[in-house]
């Protein structure tokens, strides 16, 4: 029951079986033609005033971009569910961090019809993952600017290494869902696609009457015009791009507040109401518990999105409103909710600095499950640690994953979750419970609405405990083998 990962692995195995044949082609690279428009893209080149085409994340070199910082995305999306067609205008408010003669956004697939920068037509060119924009005049360092991108087409779904599942903006029987990590955002809007540039969002989603829409944050309005309805949702808390979600369907929406007044908004597919009822009833209790461990809930609302679509192979911590797959309920539901809500602190409020830091998300969310188990009167976190440590044999490939730098292929390996949580219990055993929770609290405070790296975390733990912890973290995060007997306390 405690290990939702085992279940997760099982579900993946089943889905792999169910759609195995087309998946064999999964690794062939998706080649996009470059779409030259106006400038051929070379003119702006890589000179000192060109924004870099990536932020420098070694796992995803083209992800994110350099030279500017986005403040807000206003996404006006008109979606036709049958044909899976999106027609959209993205208005991006940003600030130049250097002089910019040209800069990039990330966008995969879709057709771009036109771009303006500060109201003036800009030229652009495209390659695989990059939308390169050359404004009519170059942007001065420190100046705010607006980019408006008109685009349309079928949203791009990304493949997941070695798995048959796809992620992204995915059509479902009764609408669409949006989930993926790390690859999702660039498949449905032009974006500076890296957690190091968080922004606020307004989603204006126009769908045929009869479809409902849920997204991150709070609903602002719903306006009918003819056969279409525009649903506006606003995410006021700046978030990483992969956490943005817009979900179209036949949702049963429920609005309530916790005792402390936090709005909790759930969108549940009608087929999932019975299975998820008992779990969702406990959301306020879970939030209260997590607050007691990690500090105040960080955002302006909470909630859940529960789809009946089997296309969703995982749950995801979409900010304020995690999305859950049908197989999470009723069985392990409560552990999924604990896990995804814990990510609101670890992953969402504090984001990875580079994708290799992923254990800071998954190890911590898994540790929250262990804390919940103890809170419910079952095994203590130390007992869970001990039983996992002794259960997994020395020869298991589990221990070969270097969770402090797992590589793209193993980014979400079980080891990142379980060994990540073990690392935290090993740290707690070393520095004591009081110091340990001080570290977690300070981590959240110091890096709120920002990124944090593994090195930052180690430095903080050393500062608070006054201990040299290099060996402990080397053993748990970087040695590709099972830590020596006795390492579990
Ligand atoms: N971060 C998710 C979790 O809570 C797992 C995950 C990884 C995921 N990649 C994904 C979910 C892609 C949806 C899509 O453990
Ligand atoms: Zn997780």
Q: What can you tell me about this protein's structure?
A:
The chain is an alpha+beta fold and 489 residues long. The chain has helices spanning 4-18, 20-23, 273-281, 283-294, 333-342, 359-375, 381-391, 414-431, 433-446, 454-465, 470-478, and strands at 68-80, 85-96, 103-106, 111-117, 120-121, 123-127, 130-134, 144-153, 157-159, 166-172, 175-179, 199-208, 212-215, 218-225, 228-239, 246-249, 252-257, 263-268, 302-306, 323-324, 350-352, 450-452. It has an eight-stranded mixed sheet with strand order 5-4-8-2-1-12-15-14, with no helix packed on it. Helix 6 packs across helix 8 (414-431) and helix 9 (433-446) crosses helix 10. The protein starts with a helix and ends in an 11-residue tail after the last helix. Mean pLDDT is 91; it is low at 1-43. The structure holds tryptophan and zinc ion. Tryptophan binds at residues 167, 179-181, 314-317, 339-340, 343, 362, 412.
The strands making up the biggest β-sheet line up spatially as 5-4-8-2-1-12-15-14
Named once each, the bound ligands are: tryptophan, zinc ion
Helix content: 25-40%
The residue-averaged pLDDT reads: 91
The rounded distance between the terminal residues' Cα atoms is 23 Å
Number of strands: 22
Structural class, by secondary structure, is alpha+beta
Individual helix count: 11
What share of the residues does DSSP label as strand, in percent? Answer: 25-35%
């Amino acid at each position: 029951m405690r290990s939702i990962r085992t279940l997760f692995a099982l579900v993946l195995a089943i889905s792999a079986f169910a759609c195995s044949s087309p998946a064999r082609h999964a690794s062939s690279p998706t080649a996009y033609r470059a779409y030259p428009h106006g400038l051929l893209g070379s003119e702006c080149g890589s000179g000192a005033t060109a924004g870099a085409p990536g932020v420098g994340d070694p796992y995803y070199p083209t992800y994110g971009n350099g030279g500017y910082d986005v403040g807000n995305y206003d996404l006006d999306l008109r979606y036709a569910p049958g044909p899976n067609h999106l027609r959209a205008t993205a208005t991006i408010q940003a600030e130049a961090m250097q002089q910019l003669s040209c800069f990039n956004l990330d966008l995969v697939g879709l057709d771009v019809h036109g771009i303006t920068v500060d109201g003036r037509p800009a030229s652009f060119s495209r390659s695989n993952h990059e939308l390169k924009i050359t404004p009519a005049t170059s942007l001065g360092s420190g100046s705010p600017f607006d980019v408006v991108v008109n685009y349309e087409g079928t949203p791009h779904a990304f493949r997941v290494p070695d798995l048959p599942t796809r992620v992204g903006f995915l059509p479902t029987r009764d609408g669409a869902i949006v989930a993926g990590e790390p690859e999702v955002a660039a498949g449905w809007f032009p974006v500076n696609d890296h957690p190091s540039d968080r922004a606020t969002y307004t989603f204006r989603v126009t769908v045929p009457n009869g479809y409902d829409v849920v997204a991150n944050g709070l609903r602002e309005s719903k306006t009918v015009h003819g056969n279409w309805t525009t649903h506006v949702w606003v995410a006021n808390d700046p978030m990483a791009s992969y956490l943005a979600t817009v979900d179209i369907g036949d949702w049963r929406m429920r609005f309530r507040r916790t005792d402390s007044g936090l709005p909790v908004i759930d969108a549940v597919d009608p087929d999932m109401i019975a299975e998820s009822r008992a779990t969702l009833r406990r959301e306020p209790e879970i939030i209260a518990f997590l607050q007691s461990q990690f500090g105040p809930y960080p955002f302006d609302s909470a909630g859940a999105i529960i789809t009946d679509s089997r296309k969703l192979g995982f749950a995801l911590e979409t900010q304020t409103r995690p999305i859950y797959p049908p197989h999470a309920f009723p069985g392990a539901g409560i552990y999924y909710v604990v896990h995804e809500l814990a990510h609101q602190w670890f992953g969402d409020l504090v984001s990875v600095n580079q994708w290799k830091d992923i254990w800071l998300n998954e190890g911590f969310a898994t540790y929250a499950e262990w804390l919940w188990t103890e809170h419910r009167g079952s095994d203590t976190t130390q007992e869970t640690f001990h039983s996992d440590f002794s259960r997994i044999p020395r020869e298991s490939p589990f221990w070969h994953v270097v969770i402090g730098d797992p590589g793209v292929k193993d980014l979400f390996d079980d080891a990142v979750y379980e060994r990540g949580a073990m690392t935290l219990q090993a740290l707690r055993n070393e520095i004591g419970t009081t110091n340990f929770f001080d570290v977690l609290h300070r981590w959240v405070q110091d890096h709120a609405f920002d990124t944090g790296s593994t090195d930052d975390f180690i430095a903080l733990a050393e500062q608070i405990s006054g201990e040299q912890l290099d060996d402990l973290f080397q053993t748990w995060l970087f040695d590709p083998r099972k830590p020596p007997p006795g390492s579990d306390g």
